Structure formats: C-alpha cells, structure tokens
C-alpha cells in the first residue's frame, strides 16, 4: 500500500478496506472524517489474528489474557499531523504497513526531532509518553494495538490528553 499525495482520500480508504477484508478481518467502525485522515477499528475478537499478521514477534499473551487490545488501522494524510498527545490508561504499538510516516516523541511536553518511520518499522509508545504521528510526502498506513494499563478501566477515545492540536480540538 503506497499512495502518493495526489491520491484521493476516498480511493485510499477503499484500497485499505479491501486489503483489510481480503486478509479476513471484520471492520467494526470506519472514520474518514478526521482532519488528518481517519481509521478503521477492527473486530476485537480478531486481535490475536491482528497480532499474528502485523506483530508476529508478539503474542496475545504478551498483553495479558482477556485484555481488550483495540486493533486499528490508521490512515494519515500527507503533510497532516495528529495532535501532540499522551494517554493515562494505555501504551501503544504501531507498525507502518503502507507508505511512510513520521513520529515525534518525548517524555515531556517539549517535542523532540521528527523520526521517519519507513515501511515495516515498529514503534512502542509508553503510557504517558508524548507522541505525534505525522503524514509525510504520501499517505501513511499504520497498524496500531493498544496495551491497556488499567484492566478495570480500559482506555478509549476519551483517554487522549492533547498538549497541542493543529485542528483546535
């Protein structure tokens, strides 16, 4: 999956959806409305298959038996930035599965240098670690899995602390 900056958003989403479904995954939710691109949330029951497909160096047992893993595919538009953010109740693991992307990380609110993530790169983000995913010259496609750090109160979309956001959220 390699899409130039000129590829229309709908075409990118259609192609990514086809890859996901051809691999046998069920899509629970799709969101193309994000100003930075969007995402696909996959069926939670397929998290073991998702890990096997995109993170073969890991096992579902690495995450704790019975824990929610929230498998997602992020689609990041060229030259767009997600918010500078962190989470109280989760860590995240990302893998670039299409195109390239950039990431900035830090232990504090101060942003560090941009790192380019090429195809196949895996990055582990700790709970509380500040991070920002960035689209570079083309569309970036990222597999994401959450590591919920509070089993009694799993993370969700409300567990986003935005330090800075290009879109005023």
Automatic annotation (TrEMBL):
Residue ranges of every copy of the Mannose-6-phosphate isomerase type II C-terminal domain listed in the record: 49-165
Pfam families, A to Z: MannoseP_isomer
The species this protein was found in: Emticicia aquatilis
Domain of life: Bacteria
Protein's UniProt name: Mannose-6-phosphate isomerase type II C-terminal domain-containing protein
GO biological process, one term: polysaccharide metabolic process
InterPro entries: Man6P_isomerase-2_C (IPR001538), RmlC_Cupin_sf (IPR011051)
GO molecular function: nucleotidyltransferase activity
């Amino acid at each position: 999956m390699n899409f130039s900056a000129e590829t229309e958003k709908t075409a990118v989403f259609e192609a990514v959806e086809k890859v996901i479904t051809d691999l046998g995954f069920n899509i629970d939710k799709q969101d193309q409305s994000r100003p930075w691109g969007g995402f696909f949330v996959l069926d939670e029951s397929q998290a073991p298959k998702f890990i096997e497909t995109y993170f073969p160096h890991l096992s579902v047992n690495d995450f704790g038996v019975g824990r929610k893993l929230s498998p997602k595919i992020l689609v990041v538009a060229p030259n767009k930035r997600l918010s500078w953010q962190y989470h109280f109740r989760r860590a995240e693991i990302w893998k670039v599965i299409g195109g390239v992307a950039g990431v900035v990380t830090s232990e504090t609110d101060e942003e560090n240098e941009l790192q380019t993530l090429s195809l196949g790169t895996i990055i582990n983000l700790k709970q509380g670690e500040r991070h920002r995913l960035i689209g570079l010259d083309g569309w970036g496609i990222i597999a994401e899995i959450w590591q919920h750090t509070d089993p009694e109160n799993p993370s969700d979309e409300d567990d986003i602390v935005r330090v800075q956001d290009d879109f005023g959220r």
